[in-house]
Amino acid sequence: MRKALLVINCVILAIGNCGGPLIARLYFIHGGNRIWFSSWLETAGCPIILLPIACAYMHRSRTADPTSENKFFYMERPLFLAAVVLGIITGLDNYLYAYGLSRLPVSTASLIIASQLAFTAVFAFLLVKQKFTAYSINAVFLLSIGAGVLALHSSSDRPANEPNREYILGFVMTLAAAVFYALIMPLVELTYKKAKQEISYTLVMEIQLVMCLVATVVCTVGMLAKNDFSAIGREAREFELGETKYYVIVICSAIVWQGFFLGGIGLVFCGSSLLSGIMIAVLLPITEILAVIIFNEKFQAEKGFSLALSLWGFFSYFYGEVKQSKKKKPDPEIEMDSSLPPKTLESNV
């Protein structure tokens, strides 16, 4: 069961990680300019998480012992408060990322975001005592160097009519977004470890729901301050692709971004925060290729070199993981219940 969840979350994360930035950039290049609104869209689609939560509830109602209590929400107060704090950080991160994406090509922004892996590794080591192998260290190093190479030559792909100051600020804001998100994933893993209740995938979805609701509230405050709600109608009418396509882009953006967030914390549940960071970096080549095809973005030599380093880091990490798994002998107790992640099993001992 845990392996199936791992694959499902990888697919969900791939859709969100590749589709989210492309749709957001489509909004900006065709006339959209409301940064807080774009930030709001990254988490505003969270009510759709209620659907799988409801399905899980109905499944428990049919299969559970009639004498046992079947709650719709299992989250207890300490876990709820932790999710609220994570949601506030996520809301701020949304704004930083949306601002950067409004100023940078998708391919450039994606390569900068790849630097989150190095920060994730540091925070994972400090917060959850993440163990590293020579292969994982090599992967982190290569992916970080790849992002650094891009930073040294970033000004050459500045969009037309983009002031140098705005472009540099976009670069800095995107890098800050990478740092914030790199902090969020280890904090999620730490929350799982410190929780005083059993962590199931249903509970993971509840955490995702609370995080995104709080982040949406944070972005709503920003929208109110900038009068974004009153400007949406006018922006839709003036949108280059037409009013109907404007709303289609807005709705699709809200839905697709949920895949990114749920897939990210789902991989933390199935593996670790480092695994989640690795997968985000691994999906970079797909986002790069799609951005070049869809938006005709430039693909200079430094981007190609950065991409090659990213792929090298990807193969290094997973080669090391396969090699390590062959050395380990299976634990009979874990084999008996593979549906629970290692963290959950340890917490129940």
Helix-residue proportion: over 70%
Give the termini separation: 20 Å
Give the helix tally. 16
Number of strands: 0
Q: Tell me the radius of gyration.
A: 21 Å
Total number of domains: 1
Strand content: under 5%
Please summarize the sheet with the most strands. none
Averaging pLDDT over every residue, what do you get?
Answer: 81
**Backbone shape:** globular
**Unreliable runs, pLDDT <50, ≥5 residues?**
331-349
What are the secondary-structure elements, in order, as H or E?
Answer: HHHHHHHHHHHHHHHH
Quick take:
By secondary structure, the chain is an all-alpha fold. It has 16 helices and no strands.
Tell me what you see in this structure.
The protein is an all-alpha fold and 349 residues long. It has one domain. It has 16 helices and no strands.
